[in-house]
């Protein structure tokens, strides 16, 4: 089986993050190339939106994105700000700051809290339910992070041009789910249906808060 890793927007130059960032991954050979672009109402590309392509036939095998799923705390920020992981994955939360952090989530699919922990310490948690998880720090109110848990290997984040590309998508009808923390829609997501009859390129215009 052939894997394809879609390019993502450049992020912090940290080795642990370079391995951790998920990318659109293909488990099917000989399928179509699908290119999705998101822009806002002004035509400006929407970066770091999550695109999920779910063929009507469903994925033909269990999957994991390459690398270790990690969301670090660095310079009083979550890095990356949005992380895409496969359903059932465990995410590690290394503290790379000189200060302690206390991470929490009140999201429906994952309610948890990590007590204060310091530099070079790590916590971890599995995410067995699909959906979005909003993260915060009880010590630093401005810190915001998001984890999107998906059940399709044809998923990834848009780059600085608002584009996500993936290969190997099976032909036929497919559901396209778009998610962004500022997307003005129930659950911050929209769902559309497309027909994959060959290589496909689609542009979506979304409204942001």
TrEMBL record:
InterPro entries referenced in this protein's UniProt entry, alphabetically: Cupredoxin (IPR008972)
SUPFAM superfamilies the UniProt entry points to: Cupredoxins
Signal peptide range in chain numbering: 1-28
Statement: the UniProt record of this protein carries the keyword Signal: yes
Assigned keywords, A-Z: Signal
Protein source organism: Allopontixanthobacter confluentis
UniProt-recorded name of the protein: Methylamine utilization protein
């Amino acid at each position: 089986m052939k894997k394809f890793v879609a390019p993502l927007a450049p992020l912090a130059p940290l080795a642990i993050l370079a391995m951790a960032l998920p990318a659109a991954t293909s488990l099917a050979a000989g399928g179509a190339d699908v290119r999705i672009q998101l822009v806002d109402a002004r035509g400006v590309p929407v970066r770091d939106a999550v695109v999920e392509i779910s063929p009507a036939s469903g994925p033909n095998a269990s999957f994991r994105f390459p690398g270790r799923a990690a969301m670090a705390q660095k310079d009083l920020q979550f890095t990356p700000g949005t992380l895409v992981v496969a359903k059932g994955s465990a995410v590690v939360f290394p503290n790379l700051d000189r200060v302690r952090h206390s991470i929490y989530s009140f999201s429906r699919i994952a309610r948890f809290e990590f007590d204060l922990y310091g530099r070079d310490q790590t916590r971890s948690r599995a995410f067995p339910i699909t959906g979005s998880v909003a993260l915060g720090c009880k010590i630093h109110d401005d810190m915001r992070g998001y984890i999107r848990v998906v059940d399709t290997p044809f998923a990834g984040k848009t780059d600085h041009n608002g584009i996500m590309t993936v290969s190997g998508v099976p032909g036929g009808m497919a559901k396209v789910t778009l998610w962004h923390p500022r997307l003005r829609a129930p659950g911050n997501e929209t769902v559309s249906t497309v027909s994959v009859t060959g290589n496909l390129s689609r542009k979506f215009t979304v409204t942001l808060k």
